[in-house]
Amino acid sequence: MAAAGGLLTALASPTKLLLALFLVLHLVPFSSITAAAAISIGVNYGAYANNLPPPAQVAAFLKDRTFIDRVKLFDANPDMIRAFAGTGISLMITVPNGDIASLASRSSAPSPAASAWVASHVAPFYPATNISLVAVGNEVLATADRNLIAHLVPAMRSLYAALSAAGFHQIRVSTPHSLGILSTSEPPSIGRFRRGYDRAIFAPMLDFHRRTRTPFVVNPYPYFGYTARTLNYALFRPNSGVFDPATGVNYTNMFVAQLDAVHAAMRRLGYGDVEIAVGETGWPSAGEPGQLGVSVEDAISYNMNLIRLVNSVNGTPMMPDRRFETYVFALFNENLKPGPTAERHFGLFNADFSAVYDVGLMRGQAPAPAGGSGRRWCVAKADASAAALQANIDYACGSGGANCRPIQDGGACFYPNTPLSHASYAMNAYYQAAGRHDFDCDFGHTGVLTSTDPSRGNCKYQ
Questions:
Q1: pLDDT per residue over 253-312, tens digit each?
Q2: Which of 62, 111, 158, 386 gives 20 to 30 Å between its CA and that of 202?
C-alpha cells in the first residue's frame, strides 16, 4: 500500500480493487492459536522408526494433551486405527499403491476387492474410530506407473461406491498429489496440470470430487523449492515477494502461491469450485552441518505461521475466505527414514512425547517467546531507508496478517504520519502475532527489539 491511510483511494482499477479487498481482509489479525476453539490442525503419523510409543499411548497423548484434531496414516494399520476409537480425532487412512489396480471397477458398482477392503479396513472400526477419509494411494502420478495411474480414478469411484453400499456415507475418498502434477506454477495464475494428464486424469478426478463433495488433496512443500534467495519467501518471513502480473497480487509466501497455482490449474479445467486440502507440508528442524534454512527457528517460523494461516478465514488471493484442511508432516521424528539428515527431523515431537519445539499445540501452553520472559517490542531502526520501511509496512499489513488499522488515517497511531512511525507499529504488530521470536523482528536487518514500550498517548502497541 502506498500509504497506510490511503489504501482504497490509491487503487482504482477493477484488478487493483480486488487486490485492495484481499489486503483489507489481511488487515484482520490472525486468530490466536492458544485457544482450543481456534485450532484445527492435523498431523501425519508415520512409523518409520524403532523407538515410537504404542499407538494407544499416541492417541491418548493427542487427545488429552494437544489441540491436534485429525491424523493421517500412510496405511490402514488396524492397531493404529483401533487406538483412536472414542477419541473424537478424525482419521485419514490410506490404501497402499499396490492395491489400487485391484480396487478399480469399470461399472458404477464397486469391485469385489473394494467391497472386501471396506469390510476389512473400515467396517470393524467405524464409527467408534472417526474415519473421515480414505486416501487411495499416495502421490500416484509421481510413480510414472502408467498402469497404476490409469486405474486411479476407477479405484476411487469403486471404493466410494463400496463405502456407500456399506452405509458409510460420511467417509470421503481422495488421493494425495505432489506438486509435480503441475507443469507450470509461477506466477500462480499460470498454474496448469501436466499435459496429457490434465484431460485424461484430472478432469474426471475433479468431476468425481465435485459430485461427491470431497477434497482434492495436495502436498505442497516449500522446503523442497527454496533457495538462498527465496528462503524468507518460503518461511513466511518478510520478503519482497513474487508479483503476478495477471492478477496484480504480490505473493509474499510460497505456500499460498503453491495453493493458488493448484487452484489455477483446477479452474483452467472448469473445477475451481472443488475444495483443496493439504495432505502434507512441513519443515525440518535439523539437517546437514551448515545447511541453510534448516534449524529449530526455521521450523518454528514455517509451522507456526502455517497453523495460523490455515486457521484464519483469510484464504488466498484466488480463494478468499477459505479454510484448508491441513496435515503437518510429521508427528514424530522418525529415526529409520532413509536419505539426508533432514528426513529424520520433520517431527513436532520426539518419541518420548517431548516437543521438538513449541508452536502452541500443547494444551495449557502458549508459544514461548524466544530470548527470555521479559516483555519486548519490535521497532524499525532509525537508519532504515524509506523504501525498506514501506516494504515492511506492505508485508506486515498484507500477507503478514498484522492489524494495521491504527495507522490508517483517523487511527490512534496515524500520527506522526511518517514511514518510521508507521513501520514500527506494523512491524511490532506482526512480531507480536507471529510468536515473538527474534527472527520475527529481523525484517532484512531493519528491525530491532526493545524492552521500552513505544506506546504513546492513545497509541498503544500490543
A1: 999 999 999 999 999 999 999 999 999 999 999 999 999 999 999 999 999 999 989 988
A2: 111
Q: Check if the beta carbon of residue 316 is closer than 8 Å to that of residue 25.
A: no
CA gap 66, 332 in Å, rounded: 14
Q: How do strand 130-136 and strand 90-95 relate by DSSP bridges?
A: parallel
Alpha helices in 75-199 (DSSP H): 78-83, 100-103, 112-121, 146-165
For the chain, residues with pLDDT lower than 50 are 1-37, 366-373
Backbone angles phi, psi at 448, to 5 degrees: -145, 145
Cell of 246: 495477471
On whether the CB atoms of residues 249 and 19 are closer than 8 A, the answer is yes
Q: Catalytic site residues?
A: 139, 280
pLDDT given at position 365? 59
Segment (H or E) for 173: strand 172-174
Domains of the chain: 41-73+175-349 (3.20.20.80), 377-450 (no CATH)
The answer to whether 348 touches 356, Cβ cutoff 8 Å, is yes
Residue identified by cell 512511525 is 421
- The DSSP letter of residue 244 is E
- Beta-strand runs (E) in 283-433: 326-328, 377-380
CA-wise closest residue to 265 among 223, 205, 211: 205
pLDDT digits (tens, 9 = 90+) for 376-406: 899 998 888 989 899 999 999 987 788 999 9
Instruction: Indicate the helix (H) or strand (E) that contains 10.
Output: helix 7-10
The SS3 assignment for 68 reads: coil
